Amino acid sequence: MDPYGGADLLSGAYGPQDRQRMVKEKPKSSERTDFERDRARVLHSSALRRMGEKTQVLGPSTNDFVRTRLTHSLEVAQVGRELGKELGADPDVVDAACLSHDLGHPPFGHNGEKALDVLAGDIGGFEGNAQTLRIVARLEPKVLSSGGQPAGLNLTRATLDAICKYPWAKGQGPDPEKSRRKFSVYGDDEPVFRWMRQGAPEGRRCLEAQIMDLSDDIAYSVHDVEDAIATGKFAPADLHDDGVVEAVIDATVDWYGKGISRHDLEGAIQRLVSLDVWLPSFAGSYADLARLKDLTSELIGRFCSDTVAVTREAFGEGPLGRYRADLIVTDETRAEIQVLKGMAVHYVMSPRESEPVYYQQRTLLNDLVDVLFTNGPHHLEPLFAQQWRAAIGDEERLRVVIDQVSSLTDASASAWHARLCGMLSTQL
Predict the structure, then answer these.
(1) CB 3.0–4.6 Å: which of 224, 274, 313, 372 could bond 344 by disulfide?
(2) Which residues contact 184 (CB under 8 A, 6 or more apart)?
(3) How far apart are CA 234 and CA 228, in angstroms?
């Protein structure tokens, strides 16, 4: 019987299957719901704490104002929780998914992810979303199976599924080429993935995962622009210059593809700069910073309210959790979010691509993987040293090393490199 059909579908309730954990646990005396417990497990995880020292766009040591992976995830969770509440999805499921969505990111942001993907090319690659599932379902110490095997945080099926941004293995998504780059499970984690996806439509994301993904885009686009303005990298008045607009659109298309036309991106910029809250200038005064915060609040509210309205119009009132609805985002909202991301690319991310620090970061991670793989468990943390000793063959041992290196923060990766490779890397 379809677990999402019948009376359960009509009531909008999360059923017993949604609350199941892969490893059965003894009943708890607390009054907390299963989903509140999931959120607490993520919130108290060591993987979440480490994100406080991991790069979002600019490194944590570059400026006290800019976001880290942790502060970004907290902001994503706030946006997602409100969207989930408005749409009748369990807010704790959405909150837990938003807090978890970047757990798998390695040191040095996307630059580090690219480096580890190359190093892990022969064992299925490295993908931040697949690493996230691996962390919550295996690596983060919390629960052991009856056979003594790690079960990670042992989250409920609904929460695990909400974390899964790309619900397929490498190359097995709706778009085979794109899914070779974006996927949410490695081959050796497929048992928990199959358990998690029982009863779910193949290749389709649950509503909570869609909310998490949109909340990430909203927070990423709005807050990265806020950081760029506050740190003096982007003057908002520049967008009244046609040449600058063309350059921003070029950067957006180059970075994110042609899914949204140049015409629509240009219209999005025109709408944004026409808003009453768009800053005419910014000099860093208290008043400027207050107006900048008003801008970010207005943009987040604009995107969320528009999405709730059109989704409710399509699917009606009542709880819309799990597979009872799909999030509807208008073309105008998508274009505005995309072009905000393009502004961050043009003013912050693209200029950094050619900086020597990017090459140094990739070299540092290459060196670390090499020295740890060569020296085995001698330098690994006890958790990973144990897994190394239990590994069968070099492929499994390399995956253990990748797990170890990806768990490090920007600062600890530099410290490990200085200690193990005999090089001072603290400037990274």
Answers:
(1) 224
(2) 127, 129, 130, 132, 133, 164, 165, 166, 167, 168, 193
(3) 5
Choose the final residue of a domain: 324, 353, 382: 353
Position 352 confidence tier, pLDDT thresholds 50, 70, 90: low
Return the structure tokens found at 185. 């499970």
Q: What is the DSSP string of 103-130?
A: TT--TTHHHHHHHHHHHTGGGT---HHH
347 with 229, same domain? yes
Calculate the CA 283 to chain-centre distance. 32
Q: Which of 307, 326, 314 is nearest to 86 (CA)?
A: 307
Which of 37, 42, 34, 36 has the alpha carbon at shortest distance from 140? 42
Domain end call among 306, 338, 353: 353
Q: What is the pTM of this model?
A: 0.90
Domain match, 184 and 230 both: no
Contact 260, 336 (CB under 8 A): no
Do 91 and 34 belong together in one domain?
Answer: yes
Report the distance separating Cα 401 and Cα 345, nearest Å: 31
Q: Is residue 278 pLDDT above 80, yes or no?
A: yes
Q: Is 427 helix (H, G, I), strand (E, B) or coil?
A: coil
Q: What length is written for the chain?
A: 428
Same domain, 396 and 294: no
309 shares its domain with 385: no
Q: Any bridge partners for residue 156, and if so which?
A: 21
What are the backbone angles phi and psi of residue 322, rounded to the nearest 5°? 60, -120
Minimal CA–CA distance to 279: which of 337, 247, 219, 232? 232
Is the torsion defined by CA of 220, 226, 231, 234 positive or negative?
A: positive
In a domain, 161, yes or no: yes
Is residue 41 domain-shared with residue 181, that is, in the same domain? yes
For the chain, the C-alpha Rg in angstroms (whole number) is 22
Domain of residue 151 covers 19-206
Measuring CA to CA, which residue among 346, 302, 233 is closest to residue 294?
A: 302
Q: Helix, strand, or coil here: 380?
A: coil
46-73: pLDDT as tens digits: 999 998 876 655 544 455 546 688 989 9
pLDDT tens for 132-162 read 999 999 999 999 888 888 999 999 999 999 9
Give me the amino acid identity at 78: Q
What is the Cα–Cα distance from 358 to 352, expressed in whole angstroms?
Answer: 7
